[in-house]
Amino acid sequence: MMNVDDTLLMAFVDGELSPEQRAEVEAAISHSDELAARAAALQASVLPYRAAYDRQSVPPVPESLTRRIEELVSVSAPQERGARRGGRRFPMQWAAAAFVAGAICSGVLTGYLGGFNPLKRGADPWVQSVADYQVLYGRDTVANLRDDKTTTEQVLADIHQRDGMPIDVPDLRQVGLKFKRVQRLNYHDRPLIQMVYLPERGDPVALCVIEENEGDAPVRSSQVGEMKTVTWRANRLAYVLLAKSPSLDLQAIGNSIAGGKTAPLYSSGNGDEARDS
């Protein structure tokens, strides 16, 4: 039987294997709970990015920016074949083509375009990148996703075990936000955790967490491009809560989460189960 490593599992969930290879991986998964759990965790990071692009209405990209993206892609192309986003491939060539066609930067979390945005200043680079990434999310991107308790707990357990980050998924239903999915992304070879919520109306809201070896910092609001952001740091973790919606009081939500007043819907630290929907 073939040796099924993470690279092969990622190709499996991306649908890139031949029928023969896929059959072998499926057989291996059926005989291994560990492989099954790993495949489920990787599958959790699949999102309909193409559909998100198809629904975006964006302005033309300046010619100077187009040239800069072409230069970056030409330099990084040999390396990008092995690049992964949170353990998964992120379509760099496709993202650059979207830039040239007039779309918004989507490769900000790959490490090649991370932090590159001459139109924004002032925010921490990782917050800037997250804001650029979140702009891609429309309501249709996540509306049909169903919170799967087993998959979510597997992803959180993986984050806790691999990265030592005891991440809680806050229960934000009282402020009208329904949890949709948690993902482990990658920012400059550092794990970046993204939790996505959907309000009753409007675009998704995200809470992202990254490890930072800096002191605690209070909740602070700012505007990064189209996104309203609220940031804080606690226990060597940095947080950003962000959304486009002008109707949401992100400052109050951030204060509640940072102050420990919001109960966890899921927790990677103690295996709490999801609350009733």
Helix tally equals 10
Domain module count: 3
Write down the Rg: 19 Å
Beta-strand percentage range: 15-25%
Secondary structural class: alpha+beta
What is the general shape? globular
Which helices and strands occur, and which strands form pairs?
Blueprint: H1 6-13, H2 19-30, H3 33-43, H4 49-54, H5 63-80, H6 92-101, H7 125-134, H8 139-142, H9 149-163, E1 168-170, E2 177-187, E3 190-199, E4 205-211, E5 217-224, E6 227-234, E7 237-243, H10 250-258, E8 264-267
Antiparallel strand pairs: 1-8, 2-3, 3-4, 4-7, 5-6, 6-7
Helix pairs in contact: 1-3, 3-9, 5-6
What does this structure look like?
There is one protein chain. This protein has 277 residues and is α+β, with helices and mostly antiparallel strands. The protein folds into three domains: 6-43, no CATH class; 49-132, no CATH class; 139-267, Protein Transport Mog1p, Chain A, CATH 3.40.1000. The chain is 37% helix and 21% strand. It contains ten helices and eight strands. The strands form two sheets. Strands 2-3-4-7-6-5 form a six-stranded antiparallel beta sheet. α1 (6-13) packs across α3 (33-43), α3 packs across α9 (149-163) and α5 (63-80) runs antiparallel to α6. It is globular. The N and C termini lie far apart (42 Å).
Compact summary:
The C terminus is likely disordered. The chain has 277 residues and is of the alpha+beta class.
